[in-house]
Amino acid sequence: MNASTILEGLTQPGQMLAFCDDTDISGAPVEWLAPDLRILCAVVMPSEHYAVAAAEMKERLESLGQTEFHATEIVNPKTSSTWKAVPVEKRLEAFGFLRDQLGHDLLP
Question: Which among 74, 80, 96, 104 is most buried, taking Cβ atoms within 10 Å?
């Protein structure tokens, strides 16, 4: 099974999807962060919401001239990052957009 087949399956109705991220900097500490920092994060959503969110995120990325939302690059883009050319106001709007996507199913 290839990656595109897996991604296509994420939009099939009736599923609960969990996207996880595990960041561990214990082997390469960052001076201005707590040592041995490990961040575990997950986003859970129904597949029906993912189908809508994925399309909206793709459209927003295209409008910003970007290929992915990556928080570190949006907040503090390195010189080589394509996010560097995006005005701060647009980067803040991108975070608001992501917040709205993640909170969609939690709102009344």
Answer: 74
